[in-house]
Design a protein that fits this description.
There is one protein chain. The N and C termini lie far apart (44 Å). The model has no long low-confidence stretch (mean pLDDT 94). The protein is 41% helix and 14% strand. A 7-stranded mixed β-sheet has the order 3-2-1-4-5-7-6, with helices on both faces. The radius of gyration is 21 Å and the shape is globular. It has 312 residues and is α/β, with parallel strands linked by helices. It has 2 domains: 192 residues, 3-Layer(aba) Sandwich (Rossmann fold), CATH 3.40.50.150; 86 residues, DNA polymerase, domain 1 (Orthogonal Bundle).
């Protein structure tokens, strides 16, 4: 099945990143390559796009989608947290813009065969890069109840985290949990029926999201990237991040605010002694959200929060 993904807030991304002919850009999460194609339209002729994705399916798809711009892009099978190393390998000191789209692609849910969706019955893998790391099945069959409870509560904000964790531990004593359908049924059975019936989303949504975040170390990768991101931008260069989860967005918001902070001295000091100057300007003091028309066309964009900074 072809790789399918609708890029979220495409018009806003292009407006705020301001790509221009001859610019050097990075798309750190290629996905369906919709954002990458729109950026290439703006930076060619003379520009270059560095595309990064840890999912090999995304890279295969990008070669097809971006074929009209052959010679104006380079693709890398890697995690965006390793962008400093990729740019160093290319002898590129800094770029004019970086985009991260932290959402999951439609392809992963519908056609990856890796158990991302509770609506499919697939091997319980959930790795974005299927060639490295531990699978979701390994996690749910080995982690103790306390660890699973913490994961579901912190990453999934699941109200019944302890009940779900307890049910998983009980079920795996008699049979190893190996498929997404099997796990979904266990989660549904663990949540009180009245509560499950009142939810607007499937009862397994938050648990599946938490496992995906844990398996792919998504928050750790984001924090590692943000620690180095401004060093990778030219003065006036912009970083745009699309977050779909409150934890991701909180990390981005706080880091942007910290980088834009001119002074970190205690408020009771009579004068500044830290000598700190702002590194960036926050272009979006409040996160941008998709409009109603876009949500109607692309319901997966509903929870998008877009934030942009500019290096000073």
């Amino acid at each position: 099945m072809p790789y399918h993904h609708v890029p979220a807030m495409l018009a806003e991304v292009i407006e705020l990143l301001e790509p221009a002919p001859g610019d050097l850009f990075v798309d750190g999460t290629l996905g369906g390559a919709g954002h990458a194609r729109a950026i290439l339209e703006k930076i060619t002729p003379g520009g270059l796009l560095i595309g990064v994705d840890q999912d090999p399916d995304a890279l295969v798809n990008a070669e097809t989608v971006l074929k009209p711009y052959a010679g104006s892009y380079g693709l890398f099978h890697d995690n965006f947290s390793n962008l400093p190393g990729i740019l160093s390998q290319l002898a590129i000191p800094a770029v004019d813009g970086i985009l991260l789209d932290l959402g999951i692609a439609c392809h992963h849910l519908a056609a990856s065969g890796r158990g991302f969706s509770f609506q499919q019955d697939e091997p319980l893998d959930m790795r974005m890069n299927p060639s490295t790391g531990s699978t979701a099945a390994e996690l749910v069959n080995s982690a103790d109840e306390r660890t699973l409870t913490r994961l579901f509560r912190e990453y999934g904000e699941e109200r019944f985290a302890r009940a779900v964790a307890r049910r998983i531990v009980a079920e795996r004593r008699s049979a190893r949990i190996v498929s997404s359908g099997q796990l979904a049924r266990i989660v549904v059975a663990a949540i009180p029926r009245k509560s499950a019936a009142s939810q607007k989303i499937h009862p397994a949504t938050r648990v599946f999201m938490a496992l995906r975040i844990a398996v792919n170390h998504e928050l750790e990768a984001l924090e590692a990237f943000l620690a180095a991101a401004t060093d990778l931008l030219t003065p006036g260069g912009r970083l745009c991040i699309l977050a779909f989860h409150s934890l991701e967005d909180r990390i981005v918001k706080h880091r942007f605010r910290e980088l834009a902070q001119p002074c970190v001295c205690p408020p009771d000091l009579p004068r500044c002694v830290c000598g700190r100057t702002p590194v960036v300007r926050v272009v979006t003091p409040r996160a941008r959200r998709p409009g109603e028309a876009e949500i109607a066309r692309n319901p997966m964009a509903r929870s998008t929060r877009l934030r942009v900074l500019e290096k000073l």
